[in-house]
Amino acid sequence: MELHVQKYGGSSVADVDKIKNVARRIVETADQGNQVVAVVSALGDTTDELIELAEEVSNIRPKREMDLLMSTGEVISSALLAMAVADEGKDARALIAHQLGIKTDFTHTKARILNIDDQRLRQELEAGNIVIAAGFQGITEEEDVTTLGRGGSDTTAVALAAALDADECEIYTDVDGVFTANPQVVKGAHKIDRISPEEMLELASLGAEVLQVRAVEFAWKYNVKLHVRSSFNDQIGTIITGSDEDMEDVEVRAVTSDDDQTRFTVLDVPDKPGMAGKIFGALADADINVDMIVQSSPVHKEGANDISFTVSRTDSAEALEILDELVETGCGSELTTDDAISKVSVVGSGMRNHPGVAQKLFNALGGAGINIETISTSEIKISVLVSEKQSDEAVQILHDVYEL
Amino acid sequence: MELHVQKYGGSSVADVDKIKNVARRIVETADQGNQVVAVVSALGDTTDELIELAEEVSNIRPKREMDLLMSTGEVISSALLAMAVADEGKDARALIAHQLGIKTDFTHTKARILNIDDQRLRQELEAGNIVIAAGFQGITEEEDVTTLGRGGSDTTAVALAAALDADECEIYTDVDGVFTANPQVVKGAHKIDRISPEEMLELASLGAEVLQVRAVEFAWKYNVKLHVRSSFNDQIGTIITGSDEDMEDVEVRAVTSDDDQTRFTVLDVPDKPGMAGKIFGALADADINVDMIVQSSPVHKEGANDISFTVSRTDSAEALEILDELVETGCGSELTTDDAISKVSVVGSGMRNHPGVAQKLFNALGGAGINIETISTSEIKISVLVSEKQSDEAVQILHDVYEL
Fold first, then answer.
1. How many CA atoms, within 13 angstroms, populate the side-chain half-sphere of residue A206?
2. Are residues B284 and B365 in the same domain?
3. Is residue A186 situated within a structural domain?
4. What pTM, to 2 d.p., does this model score?
5. 8 A C-beta contact, residue B8 and residue B134
6. Alpha-carbon distance B352 to B371, whole Å?
7. Are residues B23 and B162 in the same domain?
8. Are residues A118 and A255 in the same domain?
9. Mind spelling out the 3-state secondary structure of B330-369?
10. Does any CB of chain A come closer than 8 Å to the CB of residue B14?
11. What is the CATH number of the domain that holds A165?
12. Are A389 and A302 in a shared domain?
C-alpha cells in the first residue's frame, strides 16, 4: 500500500462543484489501494476576505490574532472537503493545526516548522480513514495557532510527506505544471516535464507562483519528490526531483518575470564604513528581503555613493518607513522609489557547464533595444532589471533565443 | 479586583461598528479595575451561512465535521474582537476550544461539558490580559472540536464563570432583559427585574430565546448569578439569582408562546403493553424531546388508542421518518401532523402557593372563545396548546388577567 500526500490549492476548491471534484479525485486515489492525506487551502479568496474584515475592525491587528483569524479559512475548507468525501462513500477526518502536530516557532504570519508529531495522523490512516489536513497552519509550544506565510499549504503538504515518508507528494493547482515561461505572455511556452529542486527554488524565488519557496527548500532538504499538476485533468504535470537520471542538462530551463518589485534608491550615502550595513541591517531586522543591489559613485559627488536595490512590493510600505527614517538621521540626502520596473530572469542548472549564457542574454536584449538597468546572478540564474513596459517583450525574446 | 465574565451574542457583534462598541465596553469594565473574560458568539448569521454551505457540499454531513465547520464562526469573531480591544489600547488574547480547556463528551452538535481545565485562562488573566473566549465550542478527550448546541455560548460563559468563580456573569444581548411577554406582541409587556433560575429554566424551555436552557441549568447548579442585559445601552437588565431575598413571590412571572412546534398524532395504536414505550423510546433514542402528550381512546375503537404529542420543529423531519417506520411495522394505522399550533405557557414559582392559577387561565381563554386542545403542567408552569392564529391573542389575555 502506498501513501499519497496531495495538496489542493484555493482555486481547486473555489466553489461547490470543484470541492466535489476534488473529493472524487481523493476517493479515486484511495480506491486504487492507497492511503491518502489531502492538504487543502482556503476556498478561493477566503483569506483575502478575512484580511479585509480585520482591516475594517482594527488598525493594530496583532499578528497572533491575525494568524488565528486566517487559519479559519483552511479549517472551513478541510471540514467541507471531508464531508464531500463522506458523500463519495469513504470515511474522512478533517484534522487542523493542533491535531496535525505541526509545531512551529513563534514567528506569527510566517512561522517556521520545527517538527511534526504525526501520532494522530498515523492513527487515522491506520484506522482506514482518509485524512483531510487544513493547510497553512501550525501551532506553537504554547498551543497558539500560527500560519506559514502565503502559499504555506504547499509547505504543509511537503512537511507531512516528509514526516510520513510518503511515496508521492502531488501539488494540485489550476495550471498543468511548471512552464518554460508564462503561457499567457509568451508564444511557444510549454510545460516542463522534469526540473531539479535547485532550479525550481530559483524559479519560485523569482516570482513563479506555482510553488512556495519554502516548500521547495523543504522538499529538497528531505528528498521529497514533488509532482505539480492540474486538478482539472488527468495529465502528468511537472516532476521536481533531485535524482538526475532522465533529466536533460539544459543551459536554460525557464524564463520568468516579476513585476511585483519596487526599486529604492538612497542618494548620497556618506562614503564611511558601515553605512551600507546600517541600511541593509535595518531592512533585515524587519525580515525584508533585498535584491538587485547596485552601488554607484557618481564622479561629481565626492565622499558619497548612491545605493539602489529592489524589495518585493508586499514589503515596500514597511521598507519606505524604515528608509525614510534612516535618511532623516543622515544615512543619505534623499530617497526615490520606482514601481515601473520588472525583474526578468533565466534559470537553468546547465549554466554551470555552458559558457556564454550571459553573453547571449545581453546580445538579444541589446539587439531589441531593451535597456538593462541592473544585473544579478547566481550559479544557475541571471536576473536583469528592465522597464516594466518592456518586460513581456524581453521574456519572449529570451524564450526564443534559448530555444525553449 | 473582581473577575467579570461577559457574553456577547451574535447580534451584539453583527457588524464592524458593533464589534468596536463591544470592545469599548470590555475595556471600560477593565478600566474599572476588573479582570475580564469576554465570551463571544459568531458574527450575525455566520453560523447559518456555514450550515448552508455544508448543505450545498454534502448530503451526509458527518456531525464531527459539522462541529469543526461551525466552530470557525466563533474563532473568527473572537480574533476580530481581540484585535478591536487592542485598538482600544489593551492587551487581549483570543482563546479557542483547545486553549480554553472546555472538555466535553463526544455528542457532536450538542456536546455536554465534562470539566474545564482553566490553566491557560488563569495564566492570561494573571499576565494582565483580557481574554476573548470563542463561545459555543469544546474539545473531546481525543482533541476533536465539538459544539454545545444552539445558544451554546451562553453555556460557555456560565461554565467559565463557574470554573473561575467569577464575581459577575453578564449576558449581553439585543434586548433589555427578560420580559413578562414578547413586547412585540403584547401591550404592557415589561422587563422583569429579578427572576429565579427555576422560573428562567421553564421560560427558556418554553421558547423564550433569551438564554440557552443548559446555561440556566448550569448557572442554577453552580450558583452563578446571571445578569441578562442589552449591549446597546447601560441599563440594568434582568438578574437571575437563586437567593430569594428581594424577590416578590408572584403567581405568574411571565407568559410565553412557542409556535415552533409540530403536533404528531398516531392513530389506532394497539392497546397492548409497551406500544407507547416503543414510540417514545424510538424518539428518545434519536435525542428528540416530546411534549404535550395526550392519549385518547375513542369509544368506537376497541383495543386501540390515538396518541398525540408535540416535538420542536427542528426535530420534526427526523421524527416523521421514525414514526412513519413505526406505523408501517404495525404501531398504528396512520400518522397525521399539524404545524398550525402554538404552545402558550404561564410560568411563576408562586403557583405552588397560590391556588386557582389554572382556574383563571381556563376561564379567561374560554371566555374569549379560544379552544384549548391539550394541557400540560409542572409545579411552576401551565402550558396549553391552542391554534396558531389565536396564539398572540391568548398571550395578551393571559398577560392582562394575571396583571403583569
1. 29
2. no
3. no
4. 0.87
5. no
6. 26
7. yes
8. no
9. HHCCEEEEECCEEEEEEECHHHHCCCCHHHHHHHHHHHCC
10. no
11. 3.40.1160.10
12. yes
> What are the pLDDT digits (tens) for B58-100?
999 999 999 999 999 999 999 999 999 999 999 999 999 999 9
B residues 111-140 closer than 8 Å to A (CB): 120
Q: How many CB pairs under 8 A join A and B?
A: 119
pLDDT in tens, A208-223: 778 988 999 999 999 9
With beta carbons under 8 A apart, name residues in chain B contacting A82.
62, 65
pLDDT of B244 higher than 90: no
Q: Residue B369 falls within a domain, yes or no?
A: yes
Enumerate the residues of chain A whose CB falls inside 8 A of the CB of residue B75: 68-69, 71-72, 75
- The A residues from 77 to 106 touching B (CB cutoff 8 Å) are 78-80, 82-84, 86-87, 92-94, 96, 98-99
Residues B315 and B361 in one domain: no
Are residues B149 and B16 both part of a single domain? yes
Report yes or no on A231 lying in a domain: no
Residues of B in contact with A87 (CB under 8 A): 57-60
d(CA B347, CA B196): 11
Q: How many domains does chain B have?
A: 3
Residue of A nearest to B67 (CA): A79
Write the residue in A19, A57, A69 that is nearest to B57 by C-beta.
A19
Nearest-angstrom CA–CA distance, B306 and B283: 17
Three cell numbers written together for A135:
493547510
Phi-psi region of B223 (alpha: psi -120 to 50; beta: other; left: phi over 0): left
Kindly state whether residues A168 and A292 are assigned to the same domain: no
Q: Which of A174, A197, A214 is the last residue of a domain?
A: A174
Name which of B186, B252, B187, B192 is nearest B228 in CA terms. Answer: B192
Name every chain A residue with its beta carbon within 8 A of the beta carbon of B78: 68
Domain region containing A374: 244-404
CATH of the domain at B331: 3.30.70.260
Distance CA B84, CA B245 (A): 40
* Nearest Cα residue in chain A from B76: A69
Chain A interface mutation, best of B76, B87, B143, highest count of A Cβ atoms under 10 Å: B76
CB contact under 8 A, A58 and B120: no
Position B210 scores a pLDDT of 84
Mutation to test the B interface, candidates A19, A71, A80, A142, most B Cβ within 10 Å: A80
> Taking the mean position of all CA atoms in its chain, how far away is CA A186?
21
pLDDT tens-digit map of A8-66: 999 999 999 999 999 999 999 999 999 999 999 999 889 999 999 999 999 999 999 99
Give the cell for residue B345.
405557557
Average of per-residue pLDDT across A323-340: 93
CATH number of the domain encompassing residue A373 = 3.30.2130.10
Beta bridge partners of A291: A310
Grid cell for residue A332: 543619505
Report yes or no on A142 lying in a domain. yes
Confidence (pLDDT) at A398 = 95
- Of B307, B323, B338, the position where a domain reaches its end is B338
CB A152 within 8 A of CB A71: no
Residues A264 and A359 in one domain: yes
Residues A88 and A69: beta-carbon distance below 8 Å: no
Q: Which of A20, A98, A145 sits opposite B143 (nearest CB)?
A: A98
For A50, nearest residue in chain B (alpha carbons): B76
